[in-house]
Structures are given as C-alpha cells and as structure tokens.
Specification:
The complex is a heterodimer of chains A (about 375) and B (about 500). With about 375 residues, chain A is an alpha+beta fold. Chain A has a single domain, classed as Glutamine Phosphoribosylpyrophosphate, subunit 1, domain 1 (4-Layer Sandwich). Chain A has a 7-stranded antiparallel beta sheet. In chain A, a hairpin with a 2-residue loop joins β15 and β16. In chain A, α6 crosses α7. Chain B is an alpha/beta fold and about 500 residues long. Chain B folds into 2 domains: about 90 residues, Alpha-Beta Plaits (2-Layer Sandwich), CATH 3.30.70.20; about 325 residues, TIM Barrel, CATH 3.20.20. Chain B contains 15 helices and 23 strands. In chain B, the strands form 8 sheets. In chain B, strands 11-21-20-18-17-14-13-12 form an 8-stranded parallel beta sheet. A 3-stranded mixed beta sheet of chain B has the order 6-22-23. In chain B, α8 crosses α10 and α11 packs across α14. Classes of the chains: A alpha+beta (about 375), B alpha/beta (about 500). Chains A and B meet through α6 and α10 of A and β9 of B.
Chain lengths: ~375, ~500
C-alpha cells in the first residue's frame, strides 16, 4: 500500500491498539536524560510490533520555556510552505528549525520534521486560558485543513517525538538521550489493523498534555460524541486522542483535580459507592457518575498522562491491562511491566500494582 | 348485499372426540362465541363473534379447541386484499371510523431488525457478567454539564451546586402509559407492583391514580393529558415524576375517548368525572397552542411540586420530531418521551394508527443528534417508546441515544394479552382491557406482577450478556455509542439519518 493511502486510512478510522508504556518522573523537578526511559521501553519490545513508538519529555526546552513549541510533520511537498504562512498570520515565529535526527537505515520512510517556537501575536494575546484556546484552535485547524501536515506536539517547554518503527529505532532517530527532562513517557505500539502512519504513533498530545496508552476503548463512540459537544473535533480517530481531550476538558476547562478525574474516567462501581461511609464523598461520586456518564472510559486500558507538573497513571475499572508503579528517592516509575522499571531502577524502595481505577498522581514541585 | 356482521376473521375448530361438553368455553367467552344447546347437548361456536384472543383455547381442559385465521379468501389481488375489502364492507354498513387496538400491524420496515450489535474479540476482552459487575443503573432527568466543587482545607471536596431531581432506574426499561380505564385495575396493580419490585417506574396514563395504587405511587410517573382527568394536588404530590402527554405513537394528533359505559364508580372517582359520562381527551391541550404555552404548563407543574420532581413531555414521533423535541427541552422539560409509529393504544382509528408518524429508531437517532448539536443533550433524558419486542431492541435504542425505553404491549403480553387488537371493545377475556368484574377477576395482580418482574429480569440478564460481550460494564458507555451498531441492508440515506455505519466498515 502506498504511504498516502495508509495515511488516509489511519486518519479516517478509529484505531485500537495494544502496547507497552513507560514513564519516569522526578518529583523535585530535576532534569535527567531521556536515555532512561529509552532503555526502559526497549525492555518491552515484545509488546510492540515495530509499527510505532514515541517519547514525551517535559523540561526539555529551558531556554525557550515561555514560547509555545510546535512539532510538525510534513509528508507533502508544499505543505510546509502553506502551514508556515498560516503560522505567520497568527504568531511571531521566534525560532524554526528541523528537528535534529540521526539517520537510521532500517526506517523505511521519514517525513519532514520541523519544530517552531512561537509567540502569540499581541492582538491575539489575551489571558492565559484564551491563549490555550487559541493554540487548541490553531492545532485543530492545521490538522483538519492542511493536507500533508500534522502538528504532533504543541506545549511549552515540552516535546513529543514519535514515528513508525521500534522504540530503539525511534529513540535513536530523535536522539532522545540528548534531551534532559523531569518527566519522561514512552510508548511502544502494536496497532492491530493498519501498517502505521507517523502521526498515528503515540504519545498523543495537545497543549501541554501528552498521553501514552495501552488499550482499546469500547466507549469510544460516546466519548467522542461527548467531546464534540464540548467543542473538540477528533481528527485522528484514536482512543488516545479521546483520552487526551477528556483530560483537557476535565482538568483545564472544568477545573477538576486528577483524583476526581480518575473517578470520572474510571468510575467506581455503584456497589463500591454505596459502601462509602463518608456521605459527602458518596454524593460526590454519585454525581460524577450521573453528570459525567458519557466521559466514563469503558474497556481495557492503562494510561500515563503528563502535563508540565504532573504524571498520572490510570487503569480501567477492572484492571484489564497491566500497570506497575515504583518509587526510589525522588523518582517515581510507572510501566506496563515490572522488568521495564527494574531495568532502570535497581533497588526500588517501593514497588506496587495500582488498583483498578485508582489513579497514581505524582506532582512535581517547581 | 354484503353484510359486515357475516364476516368472520377466525374459524373455531372443535375436536368433538376431545370435547367433554364441560362448557368452560361457553362460560368464559366475553364475546359470547360459544353456546350450549340444552336440547342436543352440542356446543355451537359462532366464528363471526370471535376476537381471536385464544382464551378459550388456552382454558379448554382437553385441548379440543383450535382458533385459526379464516382460510376463506377472496380472489388473490395484490391491491385488494381481504383486509381492505372487509374494511369497506364494514364502513358501508356502519358509516363510521374503523377502530382498533394495540400497535400498528402493517409491515413497515423495522430498523431494529436491520441493525446488528458488536462484540469484543482479542484486542478487547469480553466481560463475563456472572463474574464481574455489570451496571444498568440509569438516571432520568436534567443533568448539569459539569460538577462544580471547591476544596476545603482538609482537601475535601464540597459540592457547590444543586442537582435537579432524577428518577433512578435499576433497568433502563419502564412501563408505558396505560390508564385505569383503558386497562383494568388489576392490570394497573400488576404493573405498579412489578415496577416497585424491580426498581423501575410505571405510568398512570391519563387515568388518574386509584387509591389502591397509592402504595406504588413513589414509582409512578403520572400523566397530565388534554382531558386533565384525575389531576389534583395529591396526584402530583404522590408521584415520582410528571409527564405531560401531548401525543402518542398510535394516534398522533388524535385525542381519546373512554365511552360512558366503561366509566364505573371507581373510574369516576379516580378520573373525577360523573359516573357513566364519556371521558373525552381533546386532540390538543386547549391551553397549549404553542411551545410557550407548553413552557407555562411545565413550570406550573414544577411550581406545584416545588421543583422536587422531574417533569417531562411525551410526543408522538412525527416528521419534525427533532426540532420539536429541542423546543420541548428548551421549554424546561426534564425528559422527552418519544412514541414511535408502532406504539400501542387501547383504541385508535385504524387509518391513523397505521399511517401517521415515523419509526422510533429514526426518531431517537435524530432527536439525540439534534440535542447534541445544540449542546443541550444533558438538559433532558430521552425515553423511547413504541414497539419494543426484545431486549436487543432496548440495546439498540440506547446505543442510538435513548436513556431508557418504555414498554407497553410487551408488558401486556406478559399478563396474557394475545394482541387480538380488540381492546376498544372492553371485552378482553384476559382481564386486561376491560372493566367487567367477571373478566378482571381473571387477572391476579400478584401473579401478574411476578410475571412482569420475570420479564424484566430476563431482559436485564440478556442486556448484561450483550454488554459484557461488547467489553462494556456500564450501560452509560453504550448510551449514544453508535459505533457499537452496524447496519445490514440499509441505504446511504438511512445510514446517514441513523448515524451508523454499514456492516463491514471497521471503526
């Protein structure tokens, strides 16, 4: 199949996938090299099939930390020119450059990859919440309207690096070990029905969010319609995209804490709610289920969600996908398999299996 | 000349070797079909009088009776079938509108039968409902778009908003509006008790709330219809919710008429009308000639019930159903009930029942989509009604966007109904659609309630199996989740309107 066809197919279909995930965070906000998470995800090569891998790092662009950073992939000749013209109408482009890569012979196809450091033009620069709306709108416009272009990272002082290949190939290709961050997540993909498009690899991100995900969501149909109601248009048709937007909606727009978000996305069973002794908490849990019924994520999943100051691990209500967590000093680790943690953390002080639906929330002190 | 009274729809076959002349059939038939000839000792059956309800066949101790459709037919004609010829014969004899009971019996396309459900395989494990929780709990009413809470010093969350009143259902199925008058008090008791036992709701229809049903009033949705029968403060206060009835699927745009001979002293008391007087529900509410009038009634009822009960509006599914439903939600309704073209009735003109309205599958799909597009889907629940025959129909309606489903005919079948469509005669041998004490005694409310509870239990088990198969363990993840549906043999237009993909198309 031609790459063009593959891409079209991936864009237009909802893609479930099985995968491996790994994440590391330093609670004090101390930066460390991406080589850690690269080594960790590579221990779980078995969980992927060479059709997608990726990384997200936070704190990687300290010199540019006040600028929005877009990572854009182009796989059509004139797409870059058109997108850059569009960006110029909305932003001051502080810096633009090809994303540094290393040639990897085994990668069959590589799109053109650029990164832009942007400042919102004065006339569009209002309060910070509308800035974020503005970025969201820009990203959705590019991804929807510009053929052959895809913004795959759009936060501040963070970046997503991903592509079609094994985690070692993609990590090496983007020279992940050259970056230093205080939160790292990684993904190794096993797509079940297509041969992979670079834009369809994980992590998926929007604004400062990044999500790596192992699972398939049976509630996708209603989650997506719910988000459309809230103004999010799904352009990638992946489960991960839906999870990312749900986090953005609930956290940024509805101002809910991650514990509460955990209780919405992976809601406790009624049986458990009824056993709750604290009446206030019981009422809260009940309301969350009533009001956010369409945001419940049903089906097997394990996800790692990050933003600039938090790493969150969450399992589905039945824990149908694996997730292990560990802690040593200021570091917290989460991964699909214990081996992926032990490989980079010799003697963890604590290692545990998070309960179904119980979010592991690690906040970074800034 | 052709005479209507000679037309028999059924023939009664009596196996004389089996018949023991016990005369049970003679005693039970409300239509006086069977007669015992004292001189000859024979039992003679008059086919013309037979309604086809199969009660005698059921009760015959030796199985001597078989009721069959009359094989005598007119010349084969694709246009002039026997049904149409006989209708004209009847009308030529009487000069009247032809009446019927139950739902549409024409072979319109049933979209449920062209929609198939999904199941999980490999990439997503199916869930065994016998091992894992499987949640069907459903809430009907207006829901806020978001939770607003503030954090106290000790990290506790304090809810900062009032939650509108909601109905809580253990199964997303309820009993549709059937009034005391259209059905017997024993039938009402069966429905009310079963609803209370199963954790769902029953609907009084426009029949008022009989005193004997007060113990089940906290599970009752009471109707305020165009005749306002039985509506008083106590009625509104005792109920769980109020439903303003604008229309019904079997007879959109048409009112109702309970003949005076059915208005017994009990019905008279319950409906607050003189005994023996006709109970006429006008076609429109004469105080609702517009959407703004409806809004006034909705809020008048909310005021009267101190905003403690959900107030909904029931309409028939008609061409413009989506904008109408949107108007109703914006007028303040907490739920919208939509009754499709297959919806049942105690009495309706045949020509209306069979020709007016649209299928419920289509109506639910367009209403759900419209409310979402307008961003008001959370403001009201959608209850679908009209011809739900199996638990699979319930699943499909919910996946199309309904919050819950009303069943009427299916519930009556559980009580014995054989869908003979003669409810309007008041001679229901099964003791359901009649007020004759000799007939209503046949329906024991305890047994009736048990049979209805069994039906609900059976459907909920089936729904759990189907949900588990999809890898879903809470009904809210199916609601509006049209990705779980695929069509078999529908046109592009139908797919677009239903908002579903054709079988063979992946996610």
């Amino acid at each position: 199949m031609e790459y063009e066809q593959i891409k079209e197919q991936e864009r237009n279909y909802h893609i479930p996938s099985g995968c491996g995930i790994s994440g590391v965070v330093n609670k004090k906000g101390k930066v460390f090299s991406g080589e850690n998470v690269l080594a960790s995800i590579c221990t779980m090569k078995e969980r992927g099939n060479g059709l997608g891998a990726g990384y997200a790092g936070y704190g990687i662009y300290p010199e540019m930390k006040d600028n929005w950073c877009f990572h854009i992939m182009y796989d059509e000749a004139n797409a870059r020119e058109l997108v850059e013209k569009f960006l110029e109408t909305r932003f001051i482009i502080v810096n633009e450059e090809p994303i540094p890569t290393k040639k990897i012979n085994t990668l069959k196809y590589v799109p053109t990859l650029y990164r832009y450091f942007l400042e919102i033009k004065e006339e569009n620069n209002k309060d910070s919440s509308s800035q974020e709306e503005y970025i969201l709108e820009t990203v959705m416009k590019i991804n929807k309207n510009f053929k052959g272009a895809c913004v795959f990272s759009s936060g501040k002082n963070m970046g997503i690096f991903k592509g079609v290949g094994d985690p070692d190939e993609i990590g090496e290709f983007f020279r992940i070990y050259d970056y230093k961050g205080y939160i790292w997540t990684a993904h190794n993909r096993f797509p079940t029905n297509t041969v992979g498009w670079w834009g369809g690899a994980h992590p998926f991100g929007i604004l400062g969010w990044s999500v790596v995900h192992n699972g398939e969501i049976s509630s996708y149909g209603i989650n997506r319609r719910y988000l459309e109601n809230a103004g999010y248009y799904c352009t990638f048709f992946t489960d991960t995209e839906v999870i990312t937007y749900l986090f953005d909606l609930l956290s940024r727009k509805h101002q809910l804490d991650f514990d509460i978000i955990g209780n919405i996305l992976s809601a406790p069973f009624w049986e458990k709610i009824e056993m709750e002794k604290n009446e206030e908490k019981k009422e809260l849990l009940k309301r969350l289920r009533i009001i956010y019924a369409s945001a419940l994520i049903n089906g097997p999943f394990a996800i790692l969600v990050a933003n600039s100051d938090t790493l969150i691990g969450l399992n589905d209500r039945l824990k149908l996908r694996p997730l292990v967590a560990a802690q040593k000093g200021d570091f917290v680790y989460m991964a699909s398999e214990e081996s992926a943690i032990r490989y980079i953390c010799q003697q963890p002080e604590r290692i545990w299996m998070p309960e179904a639906g119980e979010p592991v929330v690690v906040r970074v002190e800034n | 000349m052709a005479k209507a009274k000679n037309i028999s729809e059924f023939v009664i076959e009596r196996d004389m070797n089996k018949c023991i002349r016990c005369q049970a059939c003679v005693r039970v038939c409300a239509n006086d079909v069977h007669k015992y000839d004292e001189d000859t000792g024979d039992i003679i059956s008059d086919n013309v009088m037979c309604a086809g309800c199969h009660f005698c066949e059921d009760i015959c101790p030796t199985g001597a009776l078989t009721i069959k459709r009359n094989p005598s037919d007119t010349r084969k004609n694709a246009n002039w079938s026997r049904d149409y010829i006989y209708r004209i014969v009847k009308q030529a004899s009487t000069g009247g509108i032809l009446l019927t009971g139950m739902g549409n019996d024409r072979p319109y396309k049933n979209y449920f039968e062209h929609i198939v459900l999904n199941a999980a395989q490999v990439t997503n494990p199916s869930i065994d409902p016998l091992r894992e929780p499987m949640e069907l709990r459903t809430f009907i009413g207006s829901k806020p778009d978001r939770v607003i809470c503030t954090k106290g010093k000790d990290e506790r969350c304090f809810l900062k908003q009032h939650l509108p009143p909601l109905l809580e259902l253990e199964v997303p199925v309820m009993f549709s509006a059937m009034s005391f008058g259209s059905i017997s008090l024993n039938a009402c008791k069966s429905l009310a008790k079963a609803a209370s036992d199963a954790g769902i709701y029953w609907n009084t229809g426009e029949g008022g709330l009989h005193r004997d049903l007060y113990p089940y009033a906290d599970r009752a949705i009471v109707q305020v219809a165009s005749g306002r029968f039985g509506v008083n403060v106590e009625y509104l206060e005792k109920a769980a919710a109020v439903e303003i009835k604008i229309g019904q699927g079997a007879k959109p745009g048409i009112g109702g008429h309970l003949p005076g001979e059915k208005v017994s002293s009990e019905i008279s008391l319950t409906r607050m009308i003189p005994e023996g007087s006709d109970a006429i529900s006008p076609a429109p509410h004469h105080d609702i000639y517009s959407i703004e009038d409806l809004r006034q009634l909705i809020f008048a009822i909310k005021e009267a019930t101190s905003y403690k009960k959900p107030v909904g509006v029931k309409i028939a599914a008609v061409h413009n159903v989506a904008p109408i439903a949107s108007g109703i939600v914006r007028a303040g309704a907490d739920f919208v009930t939509i009754d499709g073209i297959r919806g049942g009735t105690g009495a309706a003109p045949v020509v209306i029942r069979d020709n007016v309205g649209i299928p419920i599958e289509i109506a639910v799909a367009v209403v759900d989509q419209r409310l979402r597009e307008e961003g008001i889907r959370n403001q009201a629940s959608i209850i679908a009604a009209g011809g739900f025959k199996t638990s699979a129909d319930v699943m499909k309606a919910i996946a199309l966007g309904a919050d819950a489903v009303y069943i009427g005919t299916a519930a009556l079948i559980a009580l014995g109904c054989h869908v003979c469509q003669k409810c309007y005669t008041g001679k229901c041998n099964w003791g359901i659609a009649t007020q004759d004490p000799y007939l209503t005694r046949r329906l024991n409310p305890e047994i009736g309630a048990k049979r209805l509870s069994n039906l609900l239990r059976a459907w909920s088990l089936e729904i759990k199996e189907m949900l588990g198969g999809m890898g879903i363990n809470a009904i809210e993840s199916l609601r509006g989740n049209r990705e779980q549906l695929r069509a078999v043999g529908l046109t592009e237009t139908e797919l677009r309107i239903l908002g579903i993909k054709h079988a063979g198309e992946a996610w």
